[in-house]
Amino acid sequence: QPQLEEMKSQLTRHQQFEEALYKENVKLKANVKSLQEQLVNCTQEMVNMEMVKQLELEIVKLKEEMGRKNIELAGLKVDLERGELQYKKKCEVLQGELDYELQQNV
After folding, report:
1. SS3 50
2. Is-above-0.70 flag for pTM?
3. Maximum CA extent, the chain
């Protein structure tokens, strides 16, 4: 009889220990899952940070190209204005010649 009581007591302790292990296992699994999710989030953040760096580099390149294009455009505007001035002068000369010819033929 005492042996039976001892065995029951051992069985109860084993069941309690098994239940405690099960609960600890559930907690550990939840922790592992949480850490895995955090790892995925961190990895995604790192990917996002890398994408931001690449986009920032692209922006710098585009700004440099835009600066070059603006310089080129300014040069073209100067050439256009110079051409317009030459055209006006030529028109004035031709108008003067036309006026002179008209006066001579009157």
Report:
1. helix
2. no
3. 152
